[in-house]
Amino acid sequence: MQLRYSFRLYPNGSQRSALAKAFGCARVVFNDALRVRETARAAGLPFVPSGVLSKQLTAAKKTPERAWLTEVSSVVLQQSLRDLDTAYKNFFDGLRGKRPPMGPPRFKSRKDNRQSIRFTANAGWKTTAGGKLRLPKVGDVRVQWSRSLPSVPSTVTVVKDAAGRYFASFVVQTEPETLPVTDSVVGIDLGLTHFAILSDGTKIDSPRFLRRAEKKLKKAQQSLSRKARGSANRAKARIKVARAHARTADARREFHHQLSTKIIRENQAVAVEDLAVKGLARTRLAKSVHDAGWSAFVAMLEYKAALYGRTFHRIGRFEPTSQVCSACGVKDGSKPLNVRVWTCGACGSVLDRDINAAVNVAKAAGLAVSACGARVRPGLVPAQREETGTHPKPQPATTGRQTGISVL
Asked: Taking CA atoms, which of 39, 40, 114, 308 is between 20 and 30 Å from 57?
């Protein structure tokens, strides 16, 4: 399993200049290669392969116009060409229906909020005895190590975000860590008033990080709008706005990590509903939906379940979890959002809307959860496809789907 670990970098003045030069060279190589392919497409010529682009890059280094490309590591430039290939592959796969549709590659700008370069193992980067990160033609950069890496990294990506912060992102190969088996299973209903409602009756309030930071964000944005365009004061104000947003995003991410880890450690199987976040983000609740960050939280649950040997289920978004009585299973139709507690007309059970939905989420995934939300011993839980080995033919009885795992 491949995981990604990120650590904060603190380059000095000369190292920041070297990194800025590397970012610029990688951007120029990407744009030059994209221009070659777009020119060929407009002229009706065949798609230019990567080998031809690499040879053109080598020849460009010998010209006066591109001689400064030799001042950065050649691996960074080659990886920029690989990024262009990946962008084209994702675009073509979207056209073929292999992944969600996305637009074609676009030219990069030096004003982009996020800039990055990548070093592979053959670039000669390493960690020094003093704990610094030695990068080719950059130097020994100070790193804030928050934890140790489980194995030797295969690549390192240096990222500069909109707030001017630098990060080193390592890709490592590691084995899953199996946690002790537990009898607890849980269904999760995600919401806005309460971020998560568990099938055992637990309700977790929504922190609303963006709403709480709106006053400071508004003040910083107003200050930015009053600065003259192109001035140094405007650049400083833009950094302040970006840092304010970064603090909000970091707090939200930390909340997601802590909650997802707690749920995975305490439960053997977890079930959530596949929400239509893109559709909800186009309604009047858009700001609250984005502030909640449901998609990021569910993605964390999914990869942590695979990492720690738990079972993860994602049920369809059209399951009538709020319309079915979790006690008797009778469906009595949809209810307005202001109805939070209702009585089943068939069995007379008084049901909390959110807890009832969480119990139905667990039941729809095949998890044994009692109607009152108490934890019970699960029955035979269908294994995930990646846990059942290799099959010569598709198995209709197997549920779940195979997913790629990564840590951002």
From this structure: 114
Strands annotated E in 145-263:
155-160, 166-173, 185-190, 194-198, 203-205
For position 132, what pLDDT does the model report? 95
pLDDT above 60: residue 373: no
Q: Is 395 left (phi over 0), alpha (psi -120 to 50) or beta?
A: beta
Task: Report the half-sphere exposure of 213 (CA within 13 A, side-chain side).
Answer: 22
How far, in whole angstroms, is CA 399 from its chain's centroid? 24
Instruction: Indicate the DSSP class of residue 62.
Output: T
d(CA 268, CA 186): 8
Determine which one of 189, 200, 291, 302 is catalytic. Answer: 189
The pLDDT value given to residue 354: 86
pLDDT value of residue 372: 41
For residue 89, count other CB atoms closer than 10 A to its CB.
12
The whole-angstrom separation of Cα 273 and Cα 318 is: 9
Answer whether residue 383 shows pLDDT above 50: no
Is 83 marked active-site? no
Q: Is 291 a catalytic residue?
A: no
Q: Which of 32, 200, 273, 291 is catalytic?
A: 273
Quote the pLDDT of residue 292: 93
Question: Is 273 considered catalytic here?
Answer: yes
Label residues 343-377 b or e (16+ Cβ within 10 Å = b).
ebeeeebebbbbbbbbbbbbbbbbbbbebebebee
